[in-house]
Specification:
Layout lengths: L17 H5 L27 E7 L5 E7 L1 H4 L4 E6 L20 E2 L9 E2 L5 E7 L2 H10 L1 E6 L19 E4 L2 H6 L3 E9 L11 E7 L2 E6 L4 H12 L6 E4 L15 H13 L3 E4 L15 E9 L5 E13 L2 E2 L6 H5 L5 E11 L12 H19 L3 H7 L17 H12 L12 E2 L2 E13 L5 E8 L4 E4 L9 H13 L6 E4 L16 H25 L14 E4 L2 E4 L2 E7 H7 L4 E8 L10 E13 L5 E11 L6 H20 L5 E2 L4 E2 L17 E6 L18 H4 L1 H13 L5 E2 L8
Parallel strand pairs: 1-13, 9-32, 11-12, 15-17, 21-22, 28-31
Antiparallel strand pairs: 1-6, 2-5, 2-7, 3-6, 4-16, 8-17, 9-14, 10-11, 10-13, 14-15, 18-19, 19-27, 20-21, 20-26, 23-24, 24-25, 27-28, 29-30
Helix pairs in contact: 8-16, 11-12, 14-16
Bound molecules: dioxothiomolybdenum(VI) ion.
GO molecular function, one term: iron ion binding
Keywords: Molybdenum, Oxidoreductase
Protein name: Acylaldehyde oxidase
Length: 747
């Protein structure tokens, strides 16, 4: 197979959908029905849409004793109020496809009983002709409760029985810890974080007889399709989920949440298409969040900084009805060569809604504890934090003995140290000042596993020389539209403008969830495969065609550029796709690309990072200001450098938020979240963000997938918060083990 010239891949291109987004033409679920018909995905016009507003529980635990809908029903424009009193028929078939959902526990069955499990639980839905009428009527619904005292505080609450996978041990950690020359110990606390994407969750549901069409905010149209099919007891073929644009998600649109079921249920009962948009406040109860953690960690080491023992005691919140447990144990098993390790991970069922994945899920929470503790050990042993990490670099994956596909963490550390000017750092805390500001530098390593799942893509080249590529993946912001177009353009030998990539429709070829940083590896490889096959088919057509100037040429000697096939090195000899297809009376060529991961059991595949932070802490006020940040990443091949920077810098902003600002505050008296809005839940603003820089090690990982990528979206988040916490320690000499680091903690 001939090597195609690369023009688009690796070029710092802007988003192909950027203009649509900034001009408001990108249609998000809540934008529909739009005044005009969309050009993407062939979305039909939705006529006669009515509006639904959810009524939420105002207690966190107990029973509903009554729902009085008389005033709501009497309001003009109200079409109905649905609650458990109506006993709406839902099937809730098992859904083996919902493997992202917690394996233990029961989905929240909407309106199926009188039990209240958390504050903000949907207890009724009002449907009206206008949004205003629905909102007003929802306010008029009177719900009475037999309320009980909820438990919503992770600290001190009893734990679930562990799953078999929640205990891990190698070596003899207690003995190794007892005999260690140096020990450090701490409990690190991470508060709950909410994703707070700009776009609210929204669903429009329409029934056409037995068929259900849903326009939804989702990172996984096939997951939403299968869940709706299971909830309503339908065949998946009768459900179509459409989601061409997602305005940020960070993991909380991976699962299908109750409001999607409610919209479809309301549409069925009211016999009209129904639109349901969660309010900003409902986004704190109606979808998941990053769970709060208590992470106790003890490290034992030699005086020379060889970590010999690590004992992890991890607690995380979950709901009373589902046992959500994410990959928080993994980094502690393979980030360092530590021979003796014990981990116990316990979830704590609380009267809260179920948490879910949030950027760098689990791995980033663990990294805060592990990388803070490593910094404490560096301080204790007097070893430079980077040198300490280099001394604990494993030769193979210590959790399973597998070789690493590629592991260039040491190179990330060394490259970053040089670029950040680490050698200028005086290791003594509180040693550098700028007026009233104490200046500190900190760093942390990061790791995130390289996920890959089976993916498919459809590729069609039309007689006019343009191509259409489709896969049922999503673009929650990383730029899937753009990066897939880049891959396809080069593989087909077309310009960016002559390739269109479509996603977000469950009728498109199968794609895994758009999460876990696996979209490029899986869908990208399927796109590459489909486009390679299509180009080869065109080449074959040409070389076998006696009327083609390429007749008889060895197929391996032909490349395609700008839609023109020609002999490599002899551009004059060739013809265009259009000429080839026209002469052969072909309206189009079509292929299907696939990617099936292999070699899972032969290599340990992960992405790595080294993150550096410089902070200034006001000596008297305890205010922390970021001065600069650098991330160095071993993520395999970079398909789209500008989008990679968007991911890396965006994750630094998110990590700055996690480290210094973001904090979901629950009133434990009644289980209400007191800052359930974007005014009181603090996220960084421009003034909080300093100079940010990302460096990607040049290279590829062909064990991971044929296009050599290792995933980017999660790893860029992983080491950010601990690098900042370590910089705060270096600036002040104060070790803050609780996130977010507030001014109070530094006074
Ligand atoms: Mo990401 S937390 O997998 O959307």
């Amino acid at each position: 197979m001939s090597q195609q010239p690369q023009a688009a891949v690796g070029a710092p291109l802007s988003r192909v959908d950027g203009r649509l987004k900034v001009t408001g033409q990108a249609e998000y679920a809540a934008d529909l029905p739009h005044a005009r018909t969309t050009s993407r995905g062939g979305t039909p016009i939705i006529d006669g849409v009515v509006h639904a507003v959810v009524v939420d529980s105002t207690v966190a635990r107990g029973r509903i004793t009554g729902i009085d809908t008389r005033a709501a029903d009497a309001l003009p424009g109200v079409l109905g109020v649905i609650s458990h009193l109506d006993k709406p028929a839902l099937v809730y078939r098992d859904n083996p496809g919902a493997w992202l959902d917690p394996f233990v526990g029961e989905r929240l069955h909407v309106f199926q009983d009188d039990k209240v499990r958390f504050f903000g639980q949907p207890v009724a839905v009002v449907v009206a002709r206008t949004l205003e009428a629905a909102q007003h009527a929802a306010d008029l619904v009177r719900v009475s409760y037999d309320a009980e005292q909820p438990t919503t505080d992770l600290t001190g609450a009893p734990e679930n029985d562990p799953l078999p996978t929640q205990d891990y041990a190698r070596g003899n950690p207690e003995e190794a810890l007892a005999s260690a020359e140096v020990r450090v110990e701490g409990t690190y606390r991470l508060t709950r974080n909410h994703h707070n994407a700009l776009e609210p969750h929204a669903t429009i549901a329409r029934w056409d007889g037995e068929k259900l069409t849903v326009w939804d905010k989702t990172q996984w149209v096939l997951g939403a399709r299968d869940e709706l099919a299971a909830v309503f007891g339908m065949s998946a073929e009768n459900v179509r989920v459409i989601s061409p644009f997602v305005g940020g998600a960070f993991g909380n649109a991976l699962r299908t949440w109750p409001h999607t079921t409610i919209a479809a249920l309301a549409a069925r009962e009211i016999r009209r298409p129904v639109k349901l948009v969660l309010t900003r406040e409902q986004l704190y109860y109606g979808v998941g969040y990053r769970p709060a953690y208590e992470y106790g960690l003890r490290l034992g080491s030699t005086r020379g900084g060889r970590v010999t023992a690590a004992v992890h005691r991890i607690r995380a919140e979950t709901s009373s009805y589902e046992h959500f447990a994410e990959g928080v144990m993994n980094p502690g098993q393979l980030l360092y060569a530590t021979p003796h390790v014990r981990q116990a991970f316990r979830t704590v069922p609380l009267d809260v809604n179920t948490p879910t994945f949030m950027r760098g899920p689990g791995w980033s929470s663990a990294a805060f504890a592990i990388e803070s503790a490593m910094d404490e050990l560096a301080h204790e042993t007097g070893i430079d934090p980077i040198e300490l990490r280099l001394r604990n670099e494993p030769q193979e994956d210590p959790s399973n003995g597998l070789p690493f596909s590629t592991r260039r963490l040491s190179e990330c550390l060394r490259t970053g140290a040089r670029a950040f000017g680490w050698h200028r750092r005086n290791p003594k805390p509180r040693s550098r000042r700028d007026g009233d500001w104490l200046i500190g530098m900190g760093m942390a390593s990061g790791i995130y596993d390289t996920l890959r799942m089976r993916s498919e893509a459809r590729v069609r080249l039309d007689a006019d020389g343009t191509a259409l590529v489709q896969a049922s993946t999503s673009d929650m912001g990383p730029g899937t539209y753009t990066s897939m177009t880049q891959l396809a353009a080069d593989a087909l030998g077309l310009t960016m403008r002559t390739v269109r990539f479509e996603l977000g429709d469950s009728t498109f070829p199968a794609a895994p969830p758009h999460g876990g940083s696996q979209t490029m590896a899986g869908v990208g490889s399927a796109v590459q495969d489909g486009c390679d096959k299509l180009r080869q088919e065109a080449v074959k057509l040409a070389v076998e065609d006696e009327r083609s100037p390429l007749h008889g040429v060895d197929a391996d000697d032909i490349v395609v550029r700008g839609g023109r096939l020609h002999v490599k090195g002899t551009p004059a000899r060739g013809e265009t796709y259009r000429q080839l297809l026209a002469r052969n009376n072909r309206t189009h060529l079509e292929t299907r690309g696939t990617f099936t991961p292999s070699g899972d059991d032969r290599y340990s595949m992960n992405a790595y990072s080294a993150v550096f932070a410089e902070v200034a802490v006001d000596r008297r006020l305890g205010l922390v200001r970021m001065r600069r940040m650098l991330g160095v990443y071993d993520v395999g091949r970079i398909i789209s450098p500008k989008l990679a920077d968007s991911q890396a810098l965006g994750a630094m902003v998110g990590g700055i938020g996690q480290a210094l600002l973001e904090h979901t505050v629950t009133d434990h008296r009644d289980g209400r979240i007191v800052n359930a809005n974007l005014a009181d839940y603090l996220v960084p603003v421009n003034a909080d963000i300093p100079d940010l820089k990302a460096i990607y090690l040049d290279g590829e990982d062909l064990h991971a997938d044929p296009i050599g990528v290792k995933g980017l979206g999660e790893i860029v988040k992983v080491g950010v918060a601990p690098a900042i916490a370590n910089a705060v320690f270096h600036a002040t000499g104060r070790r803050v083990r609780d996130l977010p680091i507030t001014a109070e903690a530094l006074l």
